[in-house]
Structure to design on (157 residues):
């Protein structure tokens, strides 16, 4: 993401929230790629909510995910999303999602250049996709379905 953003002309500020489970050497290498990136570290609560609400675009360049909770959080806040084309991201975003090939820095840079001029329409598309994503991944519904499954297994049904 940092490399793609740097080569795309740095159209907007880049904030990287969170941290990594990789080695300190890896983190140091990433931070040396571009001095203009703001590394916020781990962010929680009101500060995290503010980042999502004010972000022009949430980019998830993951090569491997289980259930990408950060992607669901971005959708919950109505933040437009650009994600790598891995199966978990595509499952959540569906046909209307905006994707780039996982690991392809050049394609990500082109996607940034192509999408950023259209933030208004991206926001509208996100607002349309948001209700179904929130309904599909609603924790209350998931808990009830899980409980129902356990009850049916325990009753021998």
């Amino acid at each position: 993401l940092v490399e793609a953003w740097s080569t795309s002309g740095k159209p907007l500020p880049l904030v990287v929230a969170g941290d990594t489970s990789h080695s300190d050497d890896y983190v140091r290498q990433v931070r040396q790629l571009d001095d203009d990136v703001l590394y916020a570290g781990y962010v929680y609560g009101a500060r995290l909510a503010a980042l999502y609400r004010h972000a022009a675009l949430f980019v998830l360049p993951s090569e491997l995910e289980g259930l990408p909770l950060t992607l669901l959080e971005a959708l919950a806040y109505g933040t437009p999303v650009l994600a790598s084309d891995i199966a978990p991201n595509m499952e959540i975003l569906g046909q209307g999602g905006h994707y780039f090939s996982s690991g392809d820095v050049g394609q990500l840079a082109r996607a940034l250049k192509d999408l950023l001029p259209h933030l208004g329409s991206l926001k509208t598309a996100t607002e349309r996709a948001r209700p179904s994503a929130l309904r599909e991944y609603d924790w209350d519904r998931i808990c009830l379905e899980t409980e129902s499954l356990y009850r049916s297994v325990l009753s021998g049904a």
Q: What stands out?
A: The two ends are 49 Å apart (CA to CA). The first helix runs from residue 2 to 7. The first strand starts at residue 15 and ends at 17. The mean pLDDT is 89.
